């Protein structure tokens, strides 16, 4: 049985870790370099770093900060935000990222998924998808959730897999920061449609929420931010509890 992964997320704005609710009302959550070191030591399986205002600001991800974080961790490290060229990808991988996460760029130019998979390998290419329900249908949103599209979540995920994306990071904007659990129905549907790993994001509020997304949402990994940043859930305790429920964990 494949082990499930616990993935802390560092949402970065102006060099600081921040966290909001439904993608707005951001508050400071600490120094990203310090947090990264703590999560690596606590047994997190991977780490995600998202420069959440880079695309909206029309700038690149802060490569210097990526390098500082990479120096502090010994676990797989995914970086996203503001990536708009192959050169950007080279830069971030050179600075210490193991994978890159793209969202808006891929939606605007889907062929980049083919190109990146060919150049760097699918294992390096994570498609981030921010979506919310509109009239009962999941629609993809861009630029940190600010720009809605008519693109159907499930159609897009299927296409991304066919083009070479190696993993899907799905954030439910409706659940983000709510601490009311993950979007397990959508996750399970997605899991049944594709053969690549899916990271659940948006809604973690309790240990049971993690268990539910692994069992009912069929997620391969669960990403969370505020419950870790503000010490509401400690990663070692979470993993031990999940293991006790029969969920495969790397302890």
UniProtKB/TrEMBL annotation:
<keyword id="KW-0963">Cytoplasm</keyword>
<dbReference type="InterPro" id="IPR011060">
    <property type="entry name" value="RibuloseP-bd_barrel"/>
</dbReference>
<keyword id="KW-0456">Lyase</keyword>
<comment type="function">
    <text>IGPS catalyzes the conversion of PRFAR and glutamine to IGP, AICAR and glutamate. The HisF subunit catalyzes the cyclization activity that produces IGP and AICAR from PRFAR using the ammonia provided by the HisH subunit.</text>
</comment>
<feature type="active site">
    <location>
        <position position="130"/>
    </location>
</feature>
<dbReference type="GO" id="GO:0000107">
    <property type="term" value="F:imidazoleglycerol-phosphate synthase activity"/>
</dbReference>
<dbReference type="GO" id="GO:0005737">
    <property type="term" value="C:cytoplasm"/>
</dbReference>
<dbReference type="Pfam" id="PF00977">
    <property type="entry name" value="His_biosynth"/>
</dbReference>
<dbReference type="InterPro" id="IPR004651">
    <property type="entry name" value="HisF"/>
</dbReference>
<feature type="active site">
    <location>
        <position position="11"/>
    </location>
</feature>
<comment type="subunit">
    <text>Heterodimer of HisH and HisF.</text>
</comment>
<dbReference type="GO" id="GO:0000105">
    <property type="term" value="P:L-histidine biosynthetic process"/>
</dbReference>
<protein>
    <recommendedName>
        <fullName>Imidazole glycerol phosphate synthase subunit HisF</fullName>
        <ecNumber>4.3.2.10</ecNumber>
    </recommendedName>
</protein>
<keyword id="KW-0368">Histidine biosynthesis</keyword>
<dbReference type="InterPro" id="IPR006062">
    <property type="entry name" value="His_biosynth"/>
</dbReference>
<comment type="pathway">
    <text>Amino-acid biosynthesis; L-histidine biosynthesis; L-histidine from 5-phospho-alpha-D-ribose 1-diphosphate: step 5/9.</text>
</comment>
<comment type="similarity">
    <text>Belongs to the HisA/HisF family.</text>
</comment>
<dbReference type="InterPro" id="IPR013785">
    <property type="entry name" value="Aldolase_TIM"/>
</dbReference>
<dbReference type="InterPro" id="IPR050064">
    <property type="entry name" value="IGPS_HisA/HisF"/>
</dbReference>
<dbReference type="GO" id="GO:0016829">
    <property type="term" value="F:lyase activity"/>
</dbReference>
<keyword id="KW-0028">Amino-acid biosynthesis</keyword>
């Amino acid at each position: 049985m494949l082990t499930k992964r616990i993935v802390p997320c560092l949402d970065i704005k102006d060099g600081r870790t921040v966290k909001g609710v439904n993608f707005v009302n951001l508050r400071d959550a600490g120094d990203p370099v310090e947090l990264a070191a703590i999560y690596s030591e606590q047994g997190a399986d991977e780490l995600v770093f998202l420069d959440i205002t880079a695309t909206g600001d029309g700038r690149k991800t802060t490569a210097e900060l990526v390098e500082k974080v990479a120096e502090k961790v010994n676990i797989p490290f995914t970086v996203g935000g503001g990536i708009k060229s192959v050169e950007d990808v080279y830069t971030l991988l050179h600075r210490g990222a193991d994978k890159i996460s793209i969202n808006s760029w891929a939606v605007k130019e889907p062929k980049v998924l083919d190109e990146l998979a060919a150049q760097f390998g699918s294992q390096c290419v994570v498609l981030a998808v921010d979506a919310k329900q509109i009239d009962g249908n999941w629609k993809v949103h861009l630029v940190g959730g600010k720009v809605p599209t008519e693109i159907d979540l499930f159609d897009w995920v299927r296409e991304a897999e066919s083009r070479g994306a190696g993993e899907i990071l799905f954030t439910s904007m409706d659940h983000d920061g709510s601490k009311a659990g993950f979007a397990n129905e959508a996750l399970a549907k997605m899991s049944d449609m594709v053969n690549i790993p899916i990271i659940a994001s948006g809604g973690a509020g309790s240990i049971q929420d993690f268990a539910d997304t692994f069992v009912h949402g069929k997620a391969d990994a669960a990403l969370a931010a505020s419950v870790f940043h503000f010490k509401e859930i400690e990663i070692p305790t979470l993993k031990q509890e999940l293991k006790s429920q029969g969920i495969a964990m790397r302890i």
